[in-house]
């Protein structure tokens, strides 16, 4: 069935997130090899896509290499397109228009909707892609948007397997101190974005004021927030990133939106908004690298820059970067970033480490460098000369 939708030179987009249609990976690979010349577009793969043969495609591009595509990108089997998530829709419409989108969907009384995530998949549909749909009986129905156009949906299979679970990130004393430094910046009624991982989870578990959640990924701890009476309204996200508890809680709620909504900087900056993110490195000017090291790409730009820019532009909000001063005994404050800038310095407001915080807003470049150097203290500045 899937093979009949492909033709030589076509572009196939593969739905991403924890609900990516794993059951179609082998069939897609076999069909692409048989047809020849098929291009593949990928998004965020949180797990290694077992069964997907990258050599079956003429070209493979991803807009988000971490976490499951790190090895593939490192091996040269896929090209990482450095782009913010808010720009992916334009990329799909203007340059990388897919002919087919292979995605997991859930049936409703009136038609089909996306399942555990919407992400950039709606942009592919709006650009005219045929949806090669795997219907799921185990995924939640939690999209806030319209139904998929019936004339663009071709059901190619079904699954009773639930979406994947977000692994629990262990909390250590440094993470606890980072969270303690961030919590005073979150006021009652604030719209809050948190990144994935231990820091975001710990923040949500330790909040004592009611907030609204407006984030790319929605973690399990949102359920705890709701049970404590601290969740205002319905959260907005584009990916579910939790386990069965989150999916059960989300089922029937209009939570998931396409990235055109979740990562819209104008919408996000309309009223007080606090963005809490981290970094691989920060340089002495306050510029952020979230892509990787000098030798390996293991992250992606994703929504980091979108949320930081929005929070930096909002009245009553702030863009926060929380990062430990060292990683593997090496300073995270550097003289020069290992990779190109992911988020510019002017979109960074407050920097929090396990030793305290500095507010960079209103400081000139010399003052910013002095403040960051003082905050890092004994960890110092890692000197490096990067050949690019």
What does the average pLDDT come to? 95
Q: How would you name the oligomeric state of the polypeptide chains in this document?
A: single chain
Strand percentage lies at: 15-25%
Radius of gyration: 21 Å
Q: Biggest sheet, open or closed, and with what strands and sense?
A: 8 strands, mixed
Question: What would the CATH topology of the largest domain be?
Answer: Glutaconate Coenzyme A-transferase
- Termini separation comes to 46 Å
CATH superfamily of the largest domain: Glutaconate Coenzyme A-transferase
Shape from CA axes?
globular
CATH class of the largest domain: Alpha Beta
Number of strands: 21
Find the structural class using helix and strand composition. alpha/beta
CATH architecture of the largest domain: 3-Layer(aba) Sandwich
